[in-house]
Amino acid sequence: MTYFAGKMTRVFLLSVITVLLLAGFAVAAESEQAVAVGATTGSSLRLREGPSTSAAIVTTLDKGVAVAVLDDSTDGWYRVAYSGKTGYVSADYLVIDQDNIFTTYGRANGDGINVRSGPSTESEVLASVNSGTIVTVNGFEDGWYDVTCKYGTEGYIRSDFLDLTASNTASSAAGSSIVDTAMQHLGTRYVYGGASPSGFDCSGFTMYIYKQFGYSLPHTATGQWQSGIGTRVYSISELQPGDLVFFNDPSRNAGKACSHAGIYIGNGQHIHSSSSRSNGVIISDLTSGYYNTYFIGGIHV
Questions:
Q1: Ranges in the chain, pLDDT < 70
Q2: Which residues contact 201 (CB under 8 A, 6 or more apart)?
Q3: CB 233 within 8 A of CB 299
């Protein structure tokens, strides 16, 4: 009896140790420090789930944004992280920063993150930041970001605890999430009256995307423009990613306040469901052409 009890105790201890080791490996696998920082060189650069042009699109990146490079071992592709999203971008549209001195912003992705005096866990803790806190990123060194905090503290944060972002406002996180969700439906077919991933019309698309974030919008462009939700803006330069955008050609749609709706994704572009030649969900420029001419305004929610 004593023999079996002792054997069972040893089995139990081995099981506990195994679970703890596996848990440690899991944490290590999730924690990825950057190996470099790069800047995008192409507009509407597609971040993909895998290193292939046929891989699903995670989101798109504006030109000139700084991204964390997690892996540079795949020929022709970089595995990168930006604003909490991870994926692959073509090496043709990303330049690696050589001097590791640049300026961008970073958003803390956890609570109680230490800001240290040097790029090491052995360095003195100068301050701590919580999830969502925005800091200025001044450079990169040995897997750590050189940062300046809101009230002037300068130090280092380990790169896996900070998500690089182009905006210094915390509200950008919500707009970025709206854009990311909208981008998942790029290429979905146009269906008149459609408001689901099987097919969208213009207002059905914006209604569906915003519904995922708890907003209830009417199923017409005019209705959404007049819904009273959010704050109206009338200049394209004032738009922020995730804002609703509205258009109308009065010569073709007399009596309507708006005849088309979409979602601003940044860099002067919007994503929308177009009925033109049955295009479906596409990205179009706001800075010239039809959509620039007939831009009515936007709504920042």
A1: 1-31, 167-173, 254, 277-278
A2: 190, 191, 192, 193, 194, 195, 273, 275
A3: yes
